[in-house]
Amino acid sequence: MNRYLKGLNPEQRQAVTYPLDKPLKVLAGAGTGKTRVLTTRYIHILAQGGNWAPENILALTFTNKAAAEMKERIVDSCRRMRIATGPLFLQESWIGTFHSCCHRFLREHALGAGLDPEFTVYDEARSWLLYRRVVDEFLSAKGAVPEGFVLTDLNFYVKDVYFLINRLKDSLIYPDDYQQMVREENNKYYDRWGELLMGLGDMELHPATRKVLMERGEEAREQSAWEGDLIQVTNFLFSAYQEALAAARALDFADLIYYTYRLLRDNVALGEECRHRFAYILVDEFQDTNRAQFALLRLLARDEKMSNVTVVGDERQAIYGWRNARIENVREFAAREWGGEEIRLHTNYRSYQQILDLAQFSMEKSPHLLQDNSPLRAQRGVAPGPRISLALAQDRGEEGNIIAAAIGELLKQGMRAEDIVILLRSPRWAQPYEGALRLRGIPFQTVGGVGFYDREEIKDLLAYLRVITNPYDDLALVRALMAPPCFCSDADLAQICQLQKRREGIGGEEVHLYDILRGVLVEPEIPPAVRKKVEVFLALGEGLIELQDKMSLTDFLNQILQRTAYLNYVYANPPDEVRRRIGNIKKLFSLASQIDPGTAAEFIRYAEFFSENDLREGEEAAGYRDAVTIMSVHQAKGLEFPYVFLPNLTDTNFPVRAPYPNLDYSEDLGLIIKKDRLGRDMAKFAPHNYDKENYRDIYNHFGIISYKDRQREEQLQEERRLFYVALTRAQEGLYLTCPKPFPKRSRGPHFFREIWEGYEPAEKIVGQKVQGPAGDEDPLLDWKPGELQQYHEVLSKWLELGKRIFTASDKFLPK
DNA sequence: GTAAATCTCTTTTTT
DNA sequence: AGAGATTTAC
To answer: I need a labelling partner for A314 at 20 to 30 A (CA). Which of A193, A300, A476, A556 fits?
Structure first.
C-alpha cells in the first residue's frame, strides 16, 4: 500500500483512491478529516504517475487561508513522500480560491478576454464608491428615469440595488439578460394572479374573503407597474455600473468569475487548452460556492459528467447563504448519475459521542432537505461523565459570571486557556464576556469583530482629522457633515450636491464640495435648517484648522472632541455601548500618542494602511499567547477547541432574525420588492393574510407563494446550520448558556429551549442571582462580593456533582 | 366576529 | 425593521 494511505480509515481511503477519471462527491461531516482527504487525493494524483505536475491540478478553496494551509500540507506530504515538487511548486500550483485563480488566469489571458492587461480588481469598498457615483449621475440626469417614477423613491433602494446587482452577478446574470428574464418571470407571476381572479367565480367563498381577494388582485395589478419601473431603473443602474467599471478598467469580485467563464465559453480553443491543462480539479467547501462558480466549474471540467472533478462538502455546514452561496450546488453535483460515486465520511475524530449526539439532536429539529443527515460516529467513543452543560442565567451579568467561573474552574483543573473558546453569533456581543473574564483575571483575546477602524466613532473622528488636513477630501467631508454635531441627512447632502452639480454646469469645471459649502450660506433655495448646519460646520472647521499646528496630535484630537461635543452624543447611547465607544476613543488617543509628535496627516496614513489592508486592530489589547479566544461562529468554521462556550442563546440572538431585503431576485418570482410606494407590503413579498389558512390555501392553489415566508424559513435553517457548526467545534466539553430576562412576548430561546426541554443527557442549572438593591449601577460590572461566592457554589454543583440539579419547567421558560 | 392599526421589544455573519 | 400582543375599527 502506498505510504500516504496509511492512517486513513476505509471510507477516507476509498475517497482518496477512487478512480481519477470519474466524478466524485465526498459528503464529509464535521471533523471527519475532509481536508486530509482532499490533500491526500492531491498527493495520490501526483503519485499515480501520469507525469502530472502541480500545475495540472486545480484545487479550489473557500478562503485564502485555507489555500495556504492546503499548500503547506501538500508540500509537507510531498517532502515526506520524497515526491519532487520542484522549486517553483508554490508559484506553479493552482491552489487557491475561485477568485484568486480566476484573477491569475485572466492576467494570463487578458487580451483574449477583452480586458486591459493592466486591469485592476476593485474590492468591495471601491466598487461601492464607483456604484455610488453612478447613482448620483443617474439622479442628476433625468433622461433615464421612467415617467412617473419618483426620484426620491430611489434613495430608499440605493443599497438594495447594489446588493441586487451583486446577487445577479453571482448567478452570472448580467444586464442584457437581466431585464428580459425578470420581466418574463414577473409576467408569469401576475398571470397567476389573473387566474386566481378568474377562478374566484367558481369557488365557494365567504363574501368577505372574495371581496378582499378581488381588492388584492387589483392592488397586485397596480404594484406590477411599480415593479416595471424598478426593473427599468435597476437595469439602467446595472448597465451603467458595468460601463463605469469598464471605463475604469476594473473588475469587481463577481466579474473575476464571470469574465473567466465567458472567456472559456466563447473561446473554444482556449477552453480546450484549459481543460487539458487542468487534468484534475478538486473543490473544497462546495456548499459555500455560488451559482457562477458552479457554472465555471462545469466549463473547466473535462466533460459534462465532471469526470475529473472531486468536490467535498457538507450541507449541514452551509452558512454563507447571505453571500449568495447555494447549498443546492451539493445536491446538483449528481456524481452518481454521472457515473461516479458519492462517498460519505461519518467517522468523527474530533469530539466525544455526546457532543455529536447533541448536534444531531438539534439538526433533526429543523425540516432540512439534506442529501445526507446521517449521524456522525465518534472515534473517541462516549466520554465518561457528562460533556454538555446548560445554564440559564438570571441576567447577562450573571451569565458572564457563570461562564467566567466555569472557565476558572477548568483552568484550575489544569486546562490551558488556549483550549477554551467562547463562540458568539455576533462579535459585537463580545464585551460582556470580556468584562466577566477580565474581572477574574482570565487572559482572553477577541478576534475579528468589527475592526477598530470600522467603528463609527473612530471613522467620525478620523473624518474630522482628514477634513482638517485636506478640506478637498470629499468623502471625509461628507462623513464629517453627517457626524455630530451637524448630523446632515442624506436629503440635506443631496441638496448641497445639487448645488454643486449646478455650479459645475455653469463653469464646466469640477467644483469641490468644500467650496460649495460657502455658497450654501447665501443660496436662497437651501432651507434655513440646512444652512444652519453648514454654518456650524464651517465655523467649527475653521476654528480647528487654525489650531492644527499649535498643539500636539493628542491635544488636537481632544479639541475636536470638545468643540464637536462628541462625547455628549456618545453618552446618548445605552450604557454598554457608551463604555465600548469611550474605550475606542481612548484607544485612538493612545494610538495617536504613539506617533506623537507626529502630524495628523501621518496618523491618517497610518490608519488608512490598517483599514485598507483589513488588518484588524482589536478593540481589546490582546497580546496573550495562552488566552481564551472569543470569536464569531463564522470565524470558527474549520477550527476545533477542547472546550466550547456558547453564550447568549436568546430568542433574538441565536437564531437571529435578519431584516428582509428591500429588493431581491429569484427565478420563480422575478424581482421582489418589499413595499410599494404607499408603504404596503407587495403581494409577492407577503400576500395579505397569508398566515390565515383559508387565504393561504387559495394563494397556494394558484401558485402564489409568500417570499417572506420562504425567506424566514430559509433564514431559520441557516441559523440552525450555524448552530450545528458551533456545536461541532467542541472536542471535550460544551457549555450552552442563555441569559434572562426573556422579552415578555417572545416565545423563549428557540435552540436553547429545545435542548433544555428535550435533551436528557445534558446537565442543567438555573442561576440564582439575588436581586440587589435597584439602582443605576451598571449591571455588567456591578456585582457584589457575596454574589461571586454564590455563583461559585452553584458552579461547583454544576461541575462536580455532574447531576441535574434542575429540570425544565414553565417556571423558568415562558410558555 | 374579523381585519387593520398600534404598541412594545429587540436588533448579523464577511471572502 | 420585524414580530407578537394588544387595541381599535368596522
So the answer is: A300
